[in-house]
């Protein structure tokens, strides 16, 4: 058991007002109806008519407006300069804009230089399990020589603990070295981290980063996989910003200690030569930066760079964590999808007149070898639907925007399990992802390889397709694809986890897809028949 408890924090944020000024992209958000983006006339300068009000009421409203204007002008003369996201009153804006804004209200509006640092944490208590512990640190500085983050404490409060152990009352005057986990909680080696406590004011010579908030997060050796890049990095980082209500597209992605032995693994999907292909475009306007990048961007005469806010501890916020605490219930994939659409500038079309079924093809392991035959059968069965094949391998060579645009009209996605199943996160709200299971021959049971990755998905429906030994007959990759006894994961996954399938029961697939199409018609359709003219 280790220490945390009562936080003795003098947060400069406590005197701040919170708010956010909507960008043009954010004004297009309507999470209640994803097919009505860019259809909000009141958000594009439309005016409400007051002619129906009694004249007395109109006069009183005008008088109140004049008084408010005078108060506003007086306040603006003395307030510090605003950041772009400040100034809106959430109580007066439309509900769907407030819903998106709710993940941003933690951003600080105080522009004055505080003298000292402060922090706040949520999730599990550090004493119980530091792996599931998330914190925000205000006004900490990155030392350009040691590459340590420095936390400044008023010398007059040097004898005041930062926190107390919540069980034994032990005082902590510094942060334990394992106060935060910056990497994935299920991957070794662990990456514990904590800022270093210094007694004294933040030196005036230290410049502040222009970033309103930075997320300090470790990459690992597996992020060359689309699934791992999404679940181990993109979603946890976005979820951490949501958790503290601090999401803004201009946040800084700051890479912490690498979790593993292959830092180049990130070059394929997160740090490619072509920035348009980086998955970070889903959530950020900025590239992944390292502490060395921060040093290079600072004036040559400075020896540290300060940050208004640094968030850390997102490793447990990947979508595959089922036991989120109450404070983490704000993590929602519908907000992630809306942010991705806005950041990429994707035009969301009107609801299609017909459902669109997309069947993923691929070369490599876990492929559906008879995907084209399945698509033909679905066309025959559902004559009122558009059925298309999408080459999953081709998605690796196109921009992230093009990747999302390829799926934005999809009603039903049929995908192999594994990496490509993560495409489900890019589907529009109301869609269904039909994800293939794999068969564990040793136990005779179906296994959902990706189930843990979708615990918290809330904007689409998941449907798993069960397979049996007959679905592995006649495939081109056996027996070479099979795991052998003695493999560390053989008992858990069996021999066939990486093998291709050849769907034998086409009628079963028609049933699963048919249910998904019916759901789509219930939500978006006009009462038409999914079965066309049969």
UniProtKB/TrEMBL annotation:
Domain Glycosyltransferase 61 catalytic intervals: 226-433
Pfam families reported for this sequence: Glyco_transf_61
Ranges where the record places region Disordered: 1-25
Record carries keyword Heme: no
Taxonomy, superkingdom: Eukaryota
Molecular function via GO: pentosyltransferase activity
Classification via InterPro entries: Glyco_transf_61_cat, Glycosyltransferase_61
Record-given protein name: Glycosyltransferase 61 catalytic domain-containing protein
Organism field: Coccomyxa subellipsoidea (strain C-169)
Source lineage: Eukaryota, Viridiplantae, Chlorophyta, core chlorophytes, Trebouxiophyceae
């Amino acid at each position: 058991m280790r220490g945390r408890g009562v936080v003795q924090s003098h947060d400069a944020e406590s005197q701040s007002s919170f708010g956010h000024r909507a960008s043009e992209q954010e004004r297009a958000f309507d999470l209640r109806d994803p097919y009505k983006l860019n259809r909000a006339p009141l958000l594009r300068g439309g005016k409400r008519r007051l002619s129906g009000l009694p004249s007395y009421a109109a006069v009183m409203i005008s008088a109140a407006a004049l008084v408010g204007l005078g108060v506003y002008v007086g306040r603006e003369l003395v307030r510090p300069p605003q950041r772009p996201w400040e100034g809106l009153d959430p109580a007066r804006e439309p509900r769907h804009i407030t819903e998106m804004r709710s993940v941003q209200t933690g951003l600080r509006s105080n522009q004055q230089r505080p003298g000292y640092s402060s922090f706040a944490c949520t999730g599990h208590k550090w004493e119980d399990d530091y792996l599931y512990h998330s914190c925000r640190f205000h006004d900490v500085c990155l030392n350009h020589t040691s590459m340590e983050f420095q936390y400044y404490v008023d010398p007059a409060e040097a004898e005041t603990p930062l926190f107390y152990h919540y069980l034994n009352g032990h005082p902590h005057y510094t942060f334990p070295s394992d106060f935060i986990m910056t990497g994935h909680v299920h991957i070794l080696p662990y990456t514990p981290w904590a800022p270093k406590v210094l007694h004294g004011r933040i030196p005036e010579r230290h410049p502040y980063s222009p970033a309103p908030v930075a997320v300090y997060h470790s990459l690992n050796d597996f992020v060359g996989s689309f699934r791992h890049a999404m679940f181990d990095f993109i979603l946890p980082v976005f979820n951490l910003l949501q958790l503290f209500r601090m999401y803004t597209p201009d946040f800084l992605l700051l890479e912490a200690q690498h979790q593993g032995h292959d830092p180049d693994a990130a070059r394929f999907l997160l740090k490619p030569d072509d920035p348009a292909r980086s998955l970070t475009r889903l959530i950020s306007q900025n590239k992944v930066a390292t502490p060395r990048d921060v040093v290079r961007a600072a004036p040559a005469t400075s020896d540290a760079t300060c940050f208004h806010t640094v968030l850390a501890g997102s490793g447990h916020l990947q979508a595959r964590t089922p036991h989120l605490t109450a404070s983490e219930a704000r993590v929602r994939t519908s907000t992630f999808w809306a942010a991705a659409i806005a950041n990429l500038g994707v035009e969301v079309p009107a609801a299609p007149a017909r459902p669109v079924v997309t069947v993923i093809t691929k070369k490599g392991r876990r492929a559906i070898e008879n995907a084209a035959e399945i698509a033909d059968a679905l066309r025959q069965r559902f004559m009122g639907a558009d059925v298309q094949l999408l080459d999953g391998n081709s998605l690796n060579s196109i921009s992230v925007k093009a990747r999302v645009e390829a799926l934005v009209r999809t009603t039903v996605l049929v995908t192999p399990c594994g990496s490509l199943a993560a495409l489900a996160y890019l589907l529009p709200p109301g869609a269904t992802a039909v994800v293939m299971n794999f068969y564990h021959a040793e136990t005779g049971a179906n296994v959902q390889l990706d189930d843990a990755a979708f615990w918290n998905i809330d904007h689409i429906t998941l449907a798993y397709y069960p397979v049996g030994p007959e679905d592995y007959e006649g495939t081109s990759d056996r027996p070479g694809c099979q795991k052998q006894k003695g493999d560390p994961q053989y008992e858990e996954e069996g021999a066939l986890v990486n093998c291709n399938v050849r769907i034998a029961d086409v009628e079963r697939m028609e049933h699963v897809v048919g249910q998904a199409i019916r759901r789509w018609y219930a939500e978006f359709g006009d009462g038409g028949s999914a079965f066309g003219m049969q």
